[in-house]
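hiii, so i know i said id send this last week but things got crazy w the move. better late than never?? heres the sequnce for the chain we talked about at the cafe, plus the structure i predicted for it. fair warning i was half asleep when i ran it
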Amino acid sequence: MRRVRVATISMPRRNSLDSGLATALGLVDQAGLYRPDIIALPEACINDRQSPQPVPGPITEAMAAKARQLGSYLIIPLIELTAAGQCYNTAVLLDATGEIAGCYRKMFPTDYEMEAGIIPGEEAPVFTTTFGKIGIATCFDLNFPELISGLAEGGAEIVFFVSAYEGGRQLLYAALQNSVYIVSAFR
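okay and structure toks below
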Protein backbone atom coordinates (compact mmCIF):
# COMPACT_ATOMS: atom_id res chain seq x y z
CA MET A 1 0.00 0.00 0.00
CA ARG A 2 1.23 3.47 -0.82
CA ARG A 3 0.68 6.62 1.21
CA VAL A 4 -3.02 7.40 1.28
CA ARG A 5 -4.66 10.76 1.88
CA VAL A 6 -7.98 10.15 3.66
CA ALA A 7 -10.79 12.54 4.57
CA THR A 8 -13.79 11.70 6.70
CA ILE A 9 -16.93 13.72 7.17
CA SER A 10 -18.97 14.04 10.33
CA MET A 11 -22.53 15.24 9.82
CA PRO A 12 -25.90 14.57 11.41
CA ARG A 13 -28.79 13.26 9.36
CA ARG A 14 -30.95 16.08 7.99
CA ASN A 15 -34.75 16.41 7.94
CA SER A 16 -35.12 15.51 4.29
CA LEU A 17 -33.36 13.65 1.52
CA ASP A 18 -32.78 16.89 -0.42
CA SER A 19 -31.29 18.63 2.61
CA GLY A 20 -29.12 15.62 3.46
CA LEU A 21 -27.80 15.35 -0.07
CA ALA A 22 -27.11 19.10 -0.35
CA THR A 23 -25.25 19.09 2.98
CA ALA A 24 -23.22 16.00 2.05
CA LEU A 25 -22.28 17.44 -1.36
CA GLY A 26 -21.12 20.68 0.26
CA LEU A 27 -19.01 18.84 2.82
CA VAL A 28 -17.50 16.60 0.13
CA ASP A 29 -16.51 19.77 -1.74
CA GLN A 30 -14.80 21.07 1.42
CA ALA A 31 -13.00 17.76 1.98
CA GLY A 32 -11.95 17.80 -1.68
CA LEU A 33 -9.85 20.90 -1.04
CA TYR A 34 -7.34 18.59 0.68
CA ARG A 35 -7.08 16.39 -2.44
CA PRO A 36 -7.82 13.10 -0.67
CA ASP A 37 -7.57 9.71 -2.32
CA ILE A 38 -10.78 8.70 -0.55
CA ILE A 39 -13.56 10.46 1.36
CA ALA A 40 -15.90 8.61 3.74
CA LEU A 41 -19.26 9.82 5.02
CA PRO A 42 -21.03 8.51 8.15
CA GLU A 43 -23.75 5.88 8.32
CA ALA A 44 -27.02 6.74 6.57
CA CYS A 45 -26.34 10.48 6.82
CA ILE A 46 -28.17 11.40 3.60
CA ASN A 47 -31.39 9.41 3.81
CA ASP A 48 -33.29 7.32 6.34
CA ARG A 49 -35.60 4.31 6.44
CA GLN A 50 -38.54 6.51 5.37
CA SER A 51 -36.77 7.48 2.12
CA PRO A 52 -34.78 4.45 0.91
CA GLN A 53 -33.06 4.89 -2.45
CA PRO A 54 -31.96 2.57 -5.26
CA VAL A 55 -28.32 1.89 -6.11
CA PRO A 56 -27.55 3.24 -8.62
CA GLY A 57 -29.91 6.14 -8.06
CA PRO A 58 -30.13 9.86 -7.37
CA ILE A 59 -27.74 9.80 -4.40
CA THR A 60 -25.06 7.75 -6.12
CA GLU A 61 -25.42 9.74 -9.35
CA ALA A 62 -24.93 13.09 -7.56
CA MET A 63 -21.98 11.71 -5.60
CA ALA A 64 -20.47 10.11 -8.73
CA ALA A 65 -20.24 13.56 -10.29
CA LYS A 66 -18.29 14.71 -7.21
CA ALA A 67 -15.99 11.69 -7.35
CA ARG A 68 -15.18 12.48 -10.99
CA GLN A 69 -14.71 16.19 -10.27
CA LEU A 70 -12.38 15.54 -7.32
CA GLY A 71 -10.68 12.41 -8.66
CA SER A 72 -11.36 10.73 -5.31
CA TYR A 73 -12.97 7.52 -4.17
CA LEU A 74 -16.10 8.11 -2.07
CA ILE A 75 -17.82 5.92 0.51
CA ILE A 76 -21.49 6.83 0.55
CA PRO A 77 -23.56 5.12 3.28
CA LEU A 78 -27.29 5.14 2.56
CA ILE A 79 -30.49 3.22 3.11
CA GLU A 80 -30.91 1.18 -0.07
CA LEU A 81 -34.13 -0.06 -1.62
CA THR A 82 -33.57 -2.93 -4.05
CA ALA A 83 -35.70 -3.69 -7.11
CA ALA A 84 -37.12 -6.62 -5.12
CA GLY A 85 -38.33 -4.22 -2.39
CA GLN A 86 -35.70 -5.14 0.22
CA CYS A 87 -34.03 -2.49 2.39
CA TYR A 88 -30.37 -2.59 3.38
CA ASN A 89 -28.08 -0.27 5.32
CA THR A 90 -25.54 -0.01 2.49
CA ALA A 91 -22.17 1.67 2.01
CA VAL A 92 -21.51 2.32 -1.69
CA LEU A 93 -17.89 2.63 -2.83
CA LEU A 94 -17.48 4.93 -5.82
CA ASP A 95 -14.15 4.98 -7.62
CA ALA A 96 -12.37 8.15 -8.74
CA THR A 97 -14.17 8.03 -12.11
CA GLY A 98 -17.58 7.94 -10.41
CA GLU A 99 -18.27 4.28 -11.16
CA ILE A 100 -19.69 2.01 -8.47
CA ALA A 101 -16.72 -0.11 -7.37
CA GLY A 102 -18.84 -2.15 -4.99
CA CYS A 103 -21.25 -2.15 -2.06
CA TYR A 104 -21.12 -3.37 1.49
CA ARG A 105 -24.47 -4.16 3.13
CA LYS A 106 -24.37 -3.99 6.92
CA MET A 107 -24.24 -7.56 8.17
CA PHE A 108 -25.34 -6.91 11.74
CA PRO A 109 -28.21 -4.41 11.81
CA THR A 110 -29.63 -3.56 15.22
CA ASP A 111 -32.95 -4.98 16.40
CA TYR A 112 -34.71 -1.67 15.78
CA GLU A 113 -33.30 -1.53 12.24
CA MET A 114 -34.59 -5.02 11.51
CA GLU A 115 -37.98 -4.19 13.04
CA ALA A 116 -38.11 -1.24 10.62
CA GLY A 117 -37.44 -3.52 7.64
CA ILE A 118 -33.65 -3.41 7.22
CA ILE A 119 -32.30 -6.86 6.42
CA PRO A 120 -28.74 -8.08 7.03
CA GLY A 121 -26.18 -8.25 4.25
CA GLU A 122 -24.54 -11.59 3.57
CA GLU A 123 -20.91 -10.81 2.81
CA ALA A 124 -18.08 -8.47 3.74
CA PRO A 125 -16.14 -7.85 0.52
CA VAL A 126 -12.61 -6.53 0.30
CA PHE A 127 -12.29 -3.91 -2.42
CA THR A 128 -9.17 -3.31 -4.50
CA THR A 129 -8.45 0.40 -5.04
CA THR A 130 -5.59 2.23 -6.70
CA PHE A 131 -3.99 2.71 -3.28
CA GLY A 132 -4.55 -0.70 -1.70
CA LYS A 133 -7.23 -3.04 -0.41
CA ILE A 134 -10.01 -1.77 1.82
CA GLY A 135 -12.98 -3.07 3.73
CA ILE A 136 -16.03 -1.39 5.23
CA ALA A 137 -17.85 -2.02 8.51
CA THR A 138 -20.97 -0.21 9.68
CA CYS A 139 -21.81 0.82 13.25
CA PHE A 140 -23.19 -2.19 15.17
CA ASP A 141 -20.94 -4.50 13.09
CA LEU A 142 -18.16 -3.49 15.47
CA ASN A 143 -19.71 -5.74 18.14
CA PHE A 144 -18.89 -8.78 15.99
CA PRO A 145 -15.08 -9.09 15.87
CA GLU A 146 -15.20 -11.77 13.18
CA LEU A 147 -16.19 -9.10 10.65
CA ILE A 148 -13.01 -7.01 11.06
CA SER A 149 -10.83 -10.11 11.36
CA GLY A 150 -12.40 -11.50 8.18
CA LEU A 151 -11.68 -8.28 6.31
CA ALA A 152 -8.06 -8.35 7.52
CA GLU A 153 -7.68 -12.02 6.57
CA GLY A 154 -9.11 -11.12 3.15
CA GLY A 155 -6.29 -8.63 2.63
CA ALA A 156 -7.86 -5.34 3.72
CA GLU A 157 -5.17 -2.88 4.76
CA ILE A 158 -7.65 -0.18 5.80
CA VAL A 159 -11.12 -0.74 7.22
CA PHE A 160 -13.50 2.19 6.96
CA PHE A 161 -15.90 2.33 9.90
CA VAL A 162 -19.00 4.33 8.90
CA SER A 163 -21.25 4.82 11.86
CA ALA A 164 -23.80 6.71 13.90
CA TYR A 165 -21.51 6.40 16.93
CA GLU A 166 -17.79 6.89 17.34
CA GLY A 167 -16.76 3.37 18.35
CA GLY A 168 -14.20 4.53 20.91
CA ARG A 169 -11.83 1.93 22.30
CA GLN A 170 -13.49 -0.86 20.34
CA LEU A 171 -11.93 0.62 17.18
CA LEU A 172 -8.48 0.78 18.74
CA TYR A 173 -8.81 -2.80 19.95
CA ALA A 174 -10.00 -4.04 16.54
CA ALA A 175 -7.13 -2.26 14.76
CA LEU A 176 -4.52 -3.68 17.14
CA GLN A 177 -5.97 -7.20 17.14
CA ASN A 178 -6.09 -7.37 13.35
CA SER A 179 -3.07 -5.25 12.35
CA VAL A 180 -5.16 -2.98 10.11
CA TYR A 181 -5.75 0.73 9.96
CA ILE A 182 -9.29 1.71 10.89
CA VAL A 183 -10.66 5.02 9.67
CA SER A 184 -13.83 6.27 11.32
CA ALA A 185 -16.55 8.48 9.84
CA PHE A 186 -19.35 8.96 12.34
CA ARG A 187 -22.30 11.24 12.79
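btw The first helix runs from residue 17 to 32. thought thatd interest u
miss u guys!!
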